[in-house]
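Quick question, first post here. What does this chain look like in 3D?
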Amino acid sequence: MLSIVVPCFNEEQVLEAFNDELHARLAELRQPYEVVFVDDGSLDGTLSLLRTFAARDPHVRYLSFSRNFGKEAGLLAGLHESTGDHVAIMDADLQHPPSLLRRMLDLQREGFDQVVARRSRDHDGPLRALLSRSYYRLVNHWVEVELVDGAGDFRLLSRRAVDALLELGERNRFSKGLFSWIGFRTVFFDYTDVPRVGGTSKWSYRHLLNYAVDGMVSFNSRPLRLAIHVGLPLTGLALLYAAWMVGAVLIGGVTAPGYVSLLVAVTGFGGMQIVLLGLVGEYVGRVYNECKQRPHYLVSERTPSGLARTPAQRAHFS
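> Answer (accepted):
Ran it through. Tokens below.
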């Protein structure tokens, strides 16, 4: 059994085309499969389309969140719902080509637990591509796991890899890091990036910045140690500067010059303190969220029981 997990958020414009292309490719594979759509609180007609898909196709199941909980929650819900021996994760915008599933399955048969499609950045803007590459070079010097540039959620997982991911109960989830953290045998292959078929990307620069911060702080505590490494030299420089100022006053008396340098020093040190305080606050906030133990998501609707199929029934329809 092959499970396909597809998180969706406001994908009404592309969902029909994606569903048709996906099922055409899955039919070529000639093996039992299921498709699990996760509606992340969409505000357009996404949920209505998912109801239609499930009503006419026994391979399709869906669940819909009570509100938008984010893609990480959608991925987690889809993995929980999947029943296949292998689970593929895909986006619904056709930037993850369903035609690559055959290649993924061929590689998986060689004994890999994770088969990862690594995309090029041909359709990214110059600024976005530069920022992405710079980020990965920087972050891999800090985090405890390796984050591969171009390797996202588009991958095929074995059941034991999925079970390992589901054992990780943390609330602040960063899937790219979690995929690397669980380990197991992993293989990468490259594919050419393709543009969206329709709709607009949900990843603005603000969302990307927040995602980058998640990656930086989710898998290491080194930034906290950075506060010590930066604070001690700055304190030493401040003491040297204070000694120099006292010596200058004793030798030459009090003079007006020095106001600018003092203002620059106070402003610089103050800014550094605010940044480091914000960094500490980021970690404290994550600890706070973990302590609350709230669920990752709430489901408001799922495939009606009359339409839902057991794995054996879905295999029969294949």
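Confidence is low (pLDDT under 50) at residues 312-318.
The radius of gyration is 25 Å.
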